[in-house]
């Protein structure tokens, strides 16, 4: 199909070039920063949790977690030895033109450089069901791309640890299960996970869409500032109720018993099919590492 | 680090000490411990099945479920916190029967592992997951002794000083995860 000349001209004028070299550099930098520096909102939330915790051993755990964050920055030792699967979210403006190579190769090169230069652990293995041979550079990254309005590229990195990721659950509930069914499913998931996902956790919940949409919503919910409510009042109330019930479980920091099992519950919602009520839970350990940059 | 109310113990852990360790006891471990993740466990079991020589004598030793991040020049080890113990559950009863006395990791163990601990008098400790930078400070020496091809999952002989851990499962059937939760649950 031949596009009309006016359209071609217009699109040429509004496109903004972003070179892959810059993308590689920023991805490398972001992963290194993420693995050494806990975000301020997470630290603030952990301090508040320390004040609210009643269990002596729970307080001790939270003190050590906060001390760990200081040691990590000061001595350049990663917060956690599990520096994760390299998850990368790209919000790609539709008026961006990528130059100098292909986008995903550039992102993976950034992961390779970041994990090598940053002394981060390489945890990815090929043929996960059999040979499990380490790729030795933590690639491939798991990349999620959204096309958005504008001429910018937002890059968000999330080194996601295996322990918490392994506790993920997807429930294809019946519409009859309704609100209560969703609450029970999420709380049961956290309960069964116990101390495994390194509580206090952040609970990411995705409701609606299809199976994979619900899982994506749950994961993206983890990128929100810790404890920031969903803008929708009804969903914000749902978050508060799930958080209360979760903290009533008594699991506590690292599962040793206590009041603080979750720092926050973040719920994202999408419409669903008349026959479906998908619910996904993706847990984030207390080492809630993510960093973003806008190009 | 706050050192009050913590029991100083030495690894390998002797029988007398093991009797003193009950669920919830906070300890500071000094001495020698060996790292092993799931791949190394599988190898150890294969070696036992074939009656091959093991990389170290299991009798009385402590295993640490840990795969560190790479060390920078001048560092003994990188970040060095525990991994989830449940992945070792299918291998642990056999290793306990062969003489392992201590295990350090995080997260719950299976009924079969707990049974083996009671039967053969072994203890399970948890270290704080996600505190790998802090924990690394208690590791004074690290040497890969087997299965180097597993990278972070190789078996390392570690010399530790005041390594912080908490007894989760003791030889009397005590379980900190259950007891802690029961204490703070709101029905």
List keywords for this structure.
heterodimer, A: 295 residues, alpha/beta, 2 domains, four-stranded mixed β-sheet, 9 helices, 12 strands, globular, B: 187 residues, fumarase, five-stranded mixed beta barrel
How would you sum up this structure, described in words?
The complex is a heterodimer of chains A (295) and B (187). Chain A is α/β, with parallel strands linked by helices and 295 residues long. Chain A has helices at residues 5-14, 20-36, 40-52, 56-75, 103-117, 162-165, 178-193, 211-221, 233-247, and strands at residues 16-19, 85-93, 96-99, 125-126, 133-134, 142-148, 153-160, 169-173, 201-209, 262-272, 277-284, 291-294. Chain A has two domains: 10-35 and 79-160, no CATH class; 163-288, no CATH class. In chain A, the strands form four sheets. Chain A has a four-stranded mixed beta sheet. In chain A, strands 8-11-9-10 form a four-stranded mixed beta sheet. In chain A, strands 1-3 form a two-stranded parallel ribbon. The longest helix of chain A has 20 residues, at 56-75. In chain A, 47% of the residues are buried. Chain B has one domain (7-184): fumarase. Helices cover 26% and strands 26% of the residues of chain B. Chain B contains six helices and seven strands, in the order E-H-E-H-E-H-E-H-E-H-E-E-H. Chain B has a five-stranded mixed β-barrel with strand order 2-3-4-5-7. The longest helix of chain B is centred in the first third of the chain and has 12 residues, at 38-49. Chain B is globular. Chains A and B meet through helix 4 of A and helix 5 and helix 6 of B.
Helix content of chain A: 40-55%
- In terms of quaternary structure, the protein is heterodimer
Helix/strand order of chain B, N-terminal first: EHEHEHEHEHEEH
Tally of individual domains of chain A: 2
Number of domains of chain B: 1
Do you know the CATH architecture of chain B? Alpha-Beta Barrel
Beta strand count of chain B = 7
The total count of strands of chain A amounts to 12
The profile of the biggest β sheet of chain A is: 4 strands, mixed
Alpha-carbon distance between the termini of chain A? 32 Å
CATH superfamily placement of chain B = Fe-S hydro-lyase, tartrate dehydratase beta-type, catalytic domain
């Amino acid at each position: 199909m031949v596009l009309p000349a006016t359209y071609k001209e217009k699109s040429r004028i509004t496109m903004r070039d972003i070179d892959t070299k810059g993308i590689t550099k920023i991805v490398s930098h972001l992963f290194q920063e993420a693995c050494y520096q806990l975000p301020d909102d997470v630290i603030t939330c952990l301090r508040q949790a320390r004040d609210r915790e009643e269990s002596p051993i729970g307080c001790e755990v939270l003190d050590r977690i906060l001390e760990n964050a200081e040691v990590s920055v000061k001595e350049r030792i990663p917060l956690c030895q599990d520096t994760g699967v390299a998850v990368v979210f790209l919000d790609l403006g539709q008026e961006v033109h990528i130059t100098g190579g292909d986008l995903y190769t550039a992102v993976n090169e950034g992961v390779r450089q970041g994990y090598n230069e940053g002394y981060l652990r390489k945890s990815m293995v090929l043929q996960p069901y059999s040979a499990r041979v380490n790729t030795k550079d933590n690639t491939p990254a798991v990349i999620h791309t959204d096309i958005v309005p504008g001429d910018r590229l937002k890059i968000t990195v999330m080194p996601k640890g295996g322990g918490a990721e392994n506790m993920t659950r997807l429930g294809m509930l019946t519409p009859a299960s309704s609100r209560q069914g969703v609450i029970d499913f999420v709380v049961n998931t956290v309960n069964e996970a116990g101390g495994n996902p390194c509580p206090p956790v952040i609970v990411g919940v995705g409701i609606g869409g299809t199976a994979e949409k619900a899982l994506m919503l749950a994961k993206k919910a983890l990128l929100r500032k810790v404890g920031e409510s969903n803008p929708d009042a009804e969903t914000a109330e749902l978050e508060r109720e799930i958080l209360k019930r979760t903290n009533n479980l008594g699991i506590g920091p690292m599962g040793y018993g206590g009041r603080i099992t979750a720092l926050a519950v973040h719920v994202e919602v999408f419409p669903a099919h008349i026959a479906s009520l998908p619910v996904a839970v993706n847990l984030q350990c207390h080492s809630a590492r993510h960093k973003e940059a806008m190009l | 680090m706050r050192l009050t109310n913590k029991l100083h113990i030495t690894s390998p852990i002797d029988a007398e000490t093991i009797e003193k360790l009950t669920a919830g006891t906070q300890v500071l471990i000094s001495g020698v411990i060996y790292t092993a993740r799931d791949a190394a466990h599988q190898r150890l079991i294969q070696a036992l099945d074939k009656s091959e020589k093991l990389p170290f004598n299991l009798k009385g030793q402590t295993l640490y479920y840990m795969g560190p991040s790479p060390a920078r020049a001048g560092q003994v080890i990188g970040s060095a916190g525990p991994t989830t113990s449940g992945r070792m559950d299918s291998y642990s009863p056999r290793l306990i029967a062969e003489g392992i006395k201590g295990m350090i990791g995080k997260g719950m163990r299976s009924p079969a592992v707990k049974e083996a601990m009671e039967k053969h008098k072994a203890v399970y400790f948890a270290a704080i997951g996600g505190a790998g930078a802090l924990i690394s400070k208690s590791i004074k020496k690290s040497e890969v002794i087997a299965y180097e091809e597993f990278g972070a999952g190789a078996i390392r002989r570690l010399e530790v000083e005041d390594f912080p851990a908490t007894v989760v499962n003791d030889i009397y059937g005590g379980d900190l995860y259950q007891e802690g939760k029961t204490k703070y649950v709101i029905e």
